[in-house]
Input
Amino acid sequence: MLVFSWSLVSLLLVSSSWAEQQEEDLSRQLSVGELLERANRDRNPDLDEPILIEGDIAVKSDADRNADPCTANGCLWRKWTDGKVYIPYYIANHYSSRERSIITRGLESFSSVSCIRFRPYQNGDNEWLSIESRDGCYSFVGRQGRAQTVSLARSGCLYHGTVQHELLHALGFNHEQTRSDRDSYIRVQWENIIDGMAYNFNKIATLNQGTPYDYNSVMQYEKYAFSKNNRPTMVPIPNSNVSFGQATQMSRNDIDRLNRLYKCCKYTAANKLHVTFDPPPG
Output
């Protein structure tokens, strides 16, 4: 009986290790956009979950689909007198220790390259990120007040790049392909978009922070996003051969515009933009 029990434990450990390796391999093969599309493809959300636009952006009502970007309406997180932006967070207890470490690593990745500081929720906080495993990966754009959900489903969302992507939404960023200057860099192939999904490609009067359009942004979706016929929905211009939508983590431009938006003066210097992150662990 003891031999059988140890054999079972060994089998479970091997299976767990194999599953983790499979996830790590997947995160290296697929871009953040592809991972998000896979995770949110067959959602069956609960009644209390928000409407999603652009695949993973939560909105409070259908009328908000074409609302002004939050950055124009005071939804940035508050900066303190020491020049840092402290954002409380709470991680739901249904995550395993390994899953929590992936989330925590994503939260901490902002502190070395910006004035953003995610810190655990404390009694008395009146606004915070509630990180939960709901149906899929999603976040509201910018500070909403009180508890605002960032969904990182245990199945499909726990990768370093997807954590960074959803946190950037929570900090006030939209997708790259909805930038106000999008049409100078991306041609949308409207005829290839799933019927009823064209609104996901509407341009927004974004605050671009004086940074160039970034094909390598972690906020840029891949070329087949929302395709109904396996043909590209986006083509780069003027050079259609430019690679885009393949990011697995924040780019230098992502970091630069984050620092410009929150006026993190210390980090906007070029000597801080060489920072890179280790490959995602899974």
